[in-house]
Structures are given as C-alpha cells and as structure tokens.
Write a structure and sequence with these properties.
This protein is mainly alpha-helical. It folds into three domains: 2-60; 69-109, no CATH class; 131-165. It is built from seven helices and two strands; from the N terminus they run αααααββαα. The protein has a two-stranded antiparallel sheet.
C-alpha cells in the first residue's frame, strides 16, 4: 500500500516542490520494506524504477505531461489500418481517410430521421419473407417465386452470360 501511495503521489496532476524530499524518502522506505520481505531474485532492474520516477519529477516536472499512453494507443489504432504489408504507410493513410469520412457521414446523418421501413429487416432471412420493392412508382409486393423467375429471366437474357448458356 505504501508503494501504491508513492506512485499516486508521483502521478498527481499538481506538484508541490516542497514535498519532493518526503516523496523520495517514502519511495526509498517503501522499496526497502519490500526488499526485506521478498527474495532478492524478485528484484530486477524495474524494481528500482520508482527511485528514478521520483527523481525525474523534480527534474522534468509532472509525469502526466510526459507519458506516452495516449500516443501508444493512437499508434495501435493506426497500425490496425495496415492491410498491405508491402505499403504500410499507404494503408495507414487510406484507413485514416476512411475513418475521417465515416466520422463525417455519421455526424451528418444524425440530422436526418428515417421516414420509411427498410426493404427487409435485419432479423429476416433473405428470401423467407416477401420483399417490398420501392422506387419512383408504387410499392409492389414480390414473393419468392416471382423473384426467382425475374432472376432467371435476367440471367438468361443478358449478353454477358451468353458464353455460359451454350
């Protein structure tokens, strides 16, 4: 609990320079108490990090203005945009542009309200229910048999499909 309190004092947003000596003493005493209780093999180079953090607080100022957590988290976001390992910078740029566009469209579309039902609901299976065709004319209810017939007619009468029909 003492070392947690010392870390809390190191990471405060307001720093009083007159408390620096007591902070260094607290860190030293807390680490000495830990060294008395645990085996020496537990302590490596990272266990004396609080000494350096307390010293850097006096040299550099507040820790919260220097830590890299926000930058590292944003780098993780940018790295997730990479799709082509041969050109990671281009992938990151493309992903960033897509993210900005989605943010703009999302903000823009919040001003509008939906006025009609979608063509089919998300919980409906495709082809299970009758579909409503909407367009410039009047809505027309098409069942599965009529839809399949229209699909077959389009496939057999399109010029691109002629080589496969022979």
């Amino acid at each position: 609990m003492r070392i947690s309190k010392a870390f809390r004092r190191i990471c405060t947003k307001v720093y009083n320079p007159s408390e620096f000596q007591s902070l260094q003493v607290d860190v030293a005493e807390s680490m000495a108490l830990l060294e008395m209780e645990f085996l020496p093999s537990l302590f490596d180079i990272m266990t004396h990090l609080p000494y350096h953090l307390a010293h850097e607080l006096d040299l550099c100022g507040l820790v919260t203005t220097r830590w890299m957590y926000p930058v590292e988290r944003y780098m993780k976001t940018l790295k997730s945009y990479v799709r082509n390992m041969a050109r990671p910078e281009a992938s990151i740029a493309e992903g960033y542009v897509k993210d900005e566009c989605i943010g703009f469209v999302t903000e823009y579309m919040q001003r509008f309200e939906a006025v009609q039902r979608r063509v089919w609901d998300a919980d409906e299976e495709y082809g299970d229910a009758e579909e409503v065709l909407e367009g410039a004319g009047t809505p027309y209810l098409m069942n599965a048999a009529l839809r399949d017939a229209a699909h077959k007619y389009a496939l057999t009468n399109i010029s691109v499909m002629q080589p496969w029909l022979m």
